[in-house]
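anyone seen this seq b4? input:
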Amino acid sequence: MTVLIDYDAGNVFSVTAALERLGEEVVLTDDPSTILSADHVVFPGVGHAAAAMEKLEERGLVDVLCAVKAPFLGICLGGQLMLSSSDEGPVRCLGLVPGRVMRFDKGQVHRIPQIGWNQVHYKDSPLFEGIRQDDWFFFDHSYYMDPDEGSSLAVSQADAFTYSSAIVMDNFFGVQFHPEKSGRAGARLLANFLEVR
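predicted toks r here
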């Protein structure tokens, strides 16, 4: 069973549909015992970091998410909230992966937000097994993950600016892109995640 975290800030319908197409049983919940007993945990996210953290705190989920031992995948805002802090607030985040979320500025990129398809150049990882190097994934973001050295799993480029597009720390994975909207490559990444033990 895969748990999808319910905190009113997630792109839950498309993520659920993408996982169910892979034959996975998906439960949308904010119940701590269900989350902690899941085989896999997916933490989606769309919206504002400070508001999302407030929702997690209201539902008593901050400590719960930090205690997850199963494979954990944060998507877009969910991936960003895994870091230590975000300038979108500013706000303290979950601290699962050391680092900071920062806003693109006009000196780095010509267009904010970054919306559309972009290439992902990854390090060796079970998450990217069978995915072509520099394959294309769908992005929609104005902020980017800036993890501490060693926690970045993949990078992408916006104009000439390189930023981290996937992070990892122990059982916690985070991606800046939306695998549920990324066609074949995204479906393979989700299938790979479900194979992580």
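DSSP finds six helices and 13 strands in the chain. The helical segments are 12-21, 32-36, 49-58, 62-66, 77-80, 183-195. kinda curious what u guys think
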